[in-house]
Amino acid sequence: MDLDPGWLRATVAGALDEDLGGDPGRDVTTEATVPSSLTGTARLVARADGVVAGLVVVAPVLDEVSRRTGLPTVRVELTVPEGARVGAGDVLAVLHGPVRTLLTAERTLLNLVSHASGVATHTRRWADALAGTGAMVLDTRKTTPGLRALDKYAVRCGGGTNKRMGLYDVAMVKDNHVVAAGGVAEAIAAVRQAFPDVVVQVEADTLEQVMTALDAGARFLLLDNMPPAVLAEVVAAVRAREPQTGRVELEATGGLTLASAHEVAATGVDYLSVGALTHSSPQLDVALDLDGPATTIPR
């Protein structure tokens, strides 16, 4: 579930630039009120029940602030693993080091951890709703600009599965592509000719479109905005053809809710894709509490 270290460094640097006004930047309140020699302990605490994700950013944020301020590094002790279910009041990490660094880094690390944990918490609800059905919940490209890697990491922490990472790794033939190419078969053929190594997925919203896509060689179908009764009919028709076509992966998408998740999964689809995992998850309330009294770093 690791994040790319280069992406993580760049993302942390950009987030701190926003808060500090560039590199090295400044925190005028903390620099005015907290002596550089003051050291202390702070605890990262959940204020609500949820699933934790994004703790991987805590040390990089603190390290980057230490670099910018020239102060000693902060010692980070994570007390729960990524993906853990936590309750209100649970300590997620203990941080010990210069108070200036702790306070300067506070908002940036809380923004990232709270956001990622919110996505993981929401995803876990879907994963739990689908437990035992054989279907998996997928994310989409409806992510926060600049934070796609973190959003999809959080989905994994919450028990979900990543679909494509972007426009570059999977071809998804949708209605506008069909219009532009002159048909489903033409669109699939064009992708396979241009990018023979890329998986091709095709969107369909009627049984007729599904059959056309199968005839054209599609083996991964997005069944868009179909009620459960229609989904069940489509799944049965596709499975009946699998002795000839081979295995076809089926994804339900569009208008899905937690209340209907189990019913949709019972139709026999392999996946439910849910854009709301990353575009509508409320943040998990996480806080940074500074212990007192702090001590002074020996000179």
Explain how this protein is built.
The chain has 299 residues and is an alpha/beta fold. It has 2 domains: 132 residues, Quinolinate phosphoribosyl transferase, N-terminal domain (Aldehyde Oxidoreductase, domain 3), CATH 3.90.1170; 153 residues, TIM Barrel (Alpha-Beta Barrel), CATH 3.20.20.70. The strands form 3 sheets. The chain has a 6-stranded parallel sheet with strand order 6-11-10-9-8-7. Strands 1, 3, 5, 12 and 13 form a 5-stranded antiparallel sheet that branches. Strands 2-4 form a two-stranded antiparallel sheet. Strand 9, helix 9 and strand 10 form a beta-alpha-beta unit. It is elongated. The two termini are 41 Å apart.
